[in-house]
Model the fold of this input.
Amino acid sequence: MRAPSGSGVVVERATRYVFLALAAAGLAGAGGGPPRESGPFLPPDLVELVRLDPTIRLDIRYATTNNFTGRPVYGEARAFLQRPAAEALVRVHRALAAEGYGLLVFDGYRPWSVTKQFWDQTSPGLRKFVANPRQGSKHNRGCAVDLTLYDRRTGREVEMPSGYDEMSSRAAPDYPGGTAAQRQARDRLRRAMEAEGFTVDPNEWWHFNYRDWRRYPILNVPFSAIPAR
Ligand SMILES: [Zn+2]
Done:
């Protein structure tokens, strides 16, 4: 039997989302919660990437055991960014189509509690590869994305000089090794992202920050509380 109306569910989820965002802000700085920040901030407007363009591919590693922690840390394989960043990403994806490529996203918005978990599980010598929860991550603001290219002809993920989340010097966007084709692919991704206001992380070719990240607060909203829209 059909539910009388789907909109009730959406409203309920949206309300819960706002509530949780407020709860996260309220917890800020207390009891090891997210850092306290002084605004003003733009109101969060997290958008699910595949809703804007279903040809953006996902490989949400943190929803699987195939990630550096060895276990799922997300309950749902979904990817979100703040709306202007999400719209910029769609433009990147469409520009790359003309060159025969598309975007394959590993991660977008990440709740603060997951950043904290990553930090706690990473040995001190490798912590340049994870964000310090005291400062939070640009992923927590919905303004960072981890991604690579796929080949539109074969459907395959394009080879890069290192794997995703590889904590080594090969992950640096200026790493001179690997094959010429791998470096070209990495640089193609970077050029396309930079053209739409993203900058690459100095240690990770796959991580890009959107230019307006300072305008959004650190969030600790779980995926399950973000409405599908
Ligand atoms: Zn990242």
Notes: The helical segments are 7-27, 49-52, 83-97, 112-121, 180-194. The pocket of zinc ion is lined by residues 139, 144, 146, 207 (CB under 6 Å).
